[in-house]
Structures are given as structure tokens and as C-alpha cells.
Amino acid sequence: MQRISFLLKVRAERLEDYKARHAAVWPEMLHALKSTGWRNYSLFLRDDGLLVGYLETEDFAAAQKAMAETAINARWQAEMAGFFEALDGARPDEAMHPLTEIFHLEDQLELLS
After folding, report:
1. Catalytic residue list contains 97
2. What GO MF annotations does this protein's record show (predicted)?
């Protein structure tokens, strides 16, 4: 299982609307995420707009590709694009570059066993 974390930046003037959109994500989008291998997916938002995403998946590249092939994702990404800074023409889901994991408690405890 891969643990993936990424950062994006939500525009300060759009924070409240962004939160509202995620309080009631479209059911079709939720089902698409689940069926394409996104597990334990969470978003955390700081007051200055820094967005931290976390998910677990068997294969992140495959999960991204499968989502990119769904019609609901294309609609969602088009609606979300205006919320973010510095996408440089990319869709938000294309700008999700995983951070490098440098510590995981359970992995290190397992090494001690």
C-alpha cells in the first residue's frame, strides 16, 4: 500500500467556498474515487490556503490514470481549477505531486521486531 501526501494552494478569497464544496462532494465523485483505488483520502486546509492531501492506494499512478478517465472527474477538475494558485495550466489533479515520505512509525517499529 502506498501512502501519498501532496500540497496545493487554495486562493485566499476562495477558502470558504472551497470548504463548502468539500462538505458535500458529489456522490458520483465519491464513488469514482473509491472504485479507482483511492482509500483513506483526506484533505487538510490551513487558514492561509495551504492544502495538504493524504491518501492510500495500491498504485498511485494507476489510481490517477483511472480517475482521469472518468467523466465525473473531468467535470470536478474543471469546477475546482479556479480555486487554486499556481497550477500553470494544469488541472488540480495533475498538479498533485507526491511528497517524499521520510518517516513512518509502523515501518520503523516493524524493523525493530
Report:
1. no
2. racemase and epimerase activity, acting on carbohydrates and derivatives
